[in-house]
Design goal:
Length: 446
């Protein structure tokens, strides 16, 4: 009898985000989609830690499932620092034991509150890359990121940031864009830049709340949910998201190219160079970015931790077989196969591919299902950055650094200012020199 692996050969590599503390966290972010996942594990309050046995199975199987020379481990939660430093010392020992000649790296997402000198020394010594969750300056961070007593967390997170700097730990920042902070793009971007974040991730939060919980008691639903489920009040709107990206891009492209790296801008430039998207949400298919829960359960994706998307458990099946299973293969292929015709015909399909399946719950202008809720924002952003991306892509193709775009942009700005150029009409040639009509180019942002 053929196995799942025979029917669907495992990909050469996949990425698994480990949640050793499950959904257990030491703060209570009002927009967090993962806190309610504890309802999937009724005994989680008493038995929430990943055991040494599960940890060893995970490390061993994950390394064995990667047919590439480098294996990247990612630790998240909940809050992974709740596991304590010794848990991760053991993880590193197991990685060394099962590496089999492969290079092993570690990335770690944290709210930073529990970081101290012991953590700093360990993370620096073992070259962990730290993602620090911070939503901007105090006013914007504390609006939703509060502790269990509903008290603000900014001061404690900021102290964690200073601890990373003190020990020379490499870090980047992850900022959740929601309805409150997304209206303040330059304040947030400049704050992160001034605090030394050389690599920034901006993650849009979009959740729908069911009027009635599902059979597992979950209220934040997946895209296939057919009942009444309006978008949550904390979700970023498509227009907010697009304007935020355009605003920080304008700051970055004039001042910070080559000095500050914004994940979305890097991914976009890759698309304009004709490369496959390096970020799963923009890839043509998905299914290679999974998560493992504290008890060894493997799920299709961090945004699809629902019973229907559970693939199995490392105590019963191997990671390689679960990743190659027909269920996971279909999950990944569905992203392409269910793309609406409206998206297939879109001029930015090469860069977007419909976005994250979690957000594909609205209808197209033609009434097709499966349009991304953030479509308007993506179109605004892609249309706005197009001339700059084409310039940078051309520079790189000719062996010149992309940083030249800053001088090109400044000259372009100076010419416009000198001519006191009024905005072109919708059907006039765009002033950026793209050859497109204004309405199909920079006019999209306007």
């Amino acid at each position: 009898m053929e196995t799942a692996t025979t029917l669907n050969p495992a990909p050469a590599s996949s990425h698994i985000m480990a949640k050793p503390s499950g959904s257990v966290c030491n703060i209570d972010c009002k927009y967090c989609f993962y806190l309610e996942k504890e309802k999937l594990y009724p005994d989680a309050r008493k038995n929430w830690r990943m055991s040494d046995e599960t940890l060893e199975l995970y490390v061993k199987q994950y390394i064995e499932a990667q047919d590439v020379p480098q294996v990247d481990f990612a630790w998240q939660g909940g809050e992974p620092t709740l596991m304590g430093v010794d848990f991760f010392r053991r993880a590193v020992e197991l990685q060394q034991q099962y590496a089999n000649g492969k290079l092993v790296t570690n990335a770690f997402q944290t709210n930073g509150i529990l970081l101290d000198d012991e953590w700093g020394e360990f993370l620096a010594e073992n070259k962990f890359l730290i993602g620090l969750s911070i939503d901007g300056p105090r006013t914007y961070h504390d609006h939703y990121r509060v502790d269990k007593g509903q008290k603000p967390t900014y001061d404690r997170v900021y102290a964690g940031l200073q601890m990373l700097k003190k020990h020379g730990v490499e870090f980047n920042t992850l900022t959740v864009l929601q309805n409150h902070n997304a209206d303040h793009p330059l304040e947030i971007y400049r704050f992160l830049r001034e605090e030394g974040s050389g690599f920034m991730q901006f993650i849009p939060i979009v959740e729908r709340i069911a009027h009635e919980p599902d059979e597992d008691g979950l209220e934040l639903v997946d895209p296939k949910y057919e009942g009444r489920a309006p978008v949550s009040k904390w979700s970023v709107s498509p227009g907010q998201y697009g304007k935020f990206l355009c605003a920080i891009f304008d700051e970055w492209v004039r001042n910070d190219v080559g000095q500050v790296f914004v994940q979305l801008f890097d991914v976009t430039l890759g698309s304009w160079l004709g490369q496959d998207a390096s970020l799963c949400i923009f890839a043509e298919t998905c299914g290679k970015a999974l998560i493992i829960e504290h008890n060894g359960d493997l799920y299709s994706c961090d945004h699809f931790v629902y019973s229907d998307y559970r693939l199995g458990n490392v105590h019963e099946e191997s990671i390689r077989d679960m990743v190659a299973s027909p269920q996971q293969t279909k999950f990944g292929q569905d992203k392409k196969d269910t793309l609406p015709q409206y998206c297939i015909e879109c001029e930015y399909r090469f860069a977007c591919n419909g976005g994250c399946p979690k957000h594909r719950f609205t209808k197209t202008p033609r009434g097709e299902d499966g349009l991304n809720y953030l479509c308007k924002g993506y179109k605004m952003y892609f249309g706005h950055v197009d001339p700059y991306m084409r310039f940078m892509a051309n520079e790189l193709r000719h062996g010149r650094p992309a940083t030249g775009v800053m001088e090109w942009t400044r000259k372009r700005d100076a010419v416009k200012a000198a001519l006191h150029q009024k905005a072109p009409g919708r059907n006039d040639p765009c002033s950026c020199g793209s050859g497109k009509k204004y309405k199909r180019c920079c006019g999209r942002a306007a």
